[in-house]
Specification:
With about 100 residues, the chain is mainly alpha-helical. It has one domain. Helices cover about 75% and strands about 0% of the residues. The protein is built from 3 helices and no strands. Helix 1 packs parallel to helix 3. The longest helix has about 30 residues. The N and C termini lie far apart (about 70 Å). The relative contact order is 0.19. The model has no long low-confidence stretch (mean pLDDT about 90).
């Protein structure tokens, strides 16, 4: 295959790896905060997510730095998408405290 086909596929693979990683993180935070043993949830999830993502990066790159960069770019795009999707609406956010910029 040519690089014109492989590099976009590497980017798509990075996007999928990013969705798995950050979606798994979001799920873990929701489950871990309501759990009686959150440390185990966070530790187990971290190890599984890192193992999957690192294995995916190694397999996708196959020793080519260009594929690694394309995969990493897709990973960061997935991060932006997941962060936007799981952001609470503006009405659910706590009010901000105004900063005092002068002496009383």
């Amino acid at each position: 295959m040519t690089d014109m086909v492989i590099l976009p596929l590497a980017g798509i693979a990075g996007l999928l790896l990013g969705f798995a990683f950050f979606g798994g993180l979001w799920w873990t935070v929701r489950k871990g905060l309501s759990s009686t043993g959150p440390a185990w949830w966070f530790l187990g999830s971290f190890l599984i997510r890192m193992g999957v993502v690192l294995t995916g990066f190694v397999l996708v790159s196959a020793g080519h730095w260009q594929r690694m960069v394309a995969c990493l770019l897709g990973f960061f795009v997935a991060r932006l998408i997941v962060a936007r999707l799981v952001r609470p609406p503006l009405t659910d956010r706590p009010p901000t405290i105004p900063r005092i910029t002068h002496a009383p």
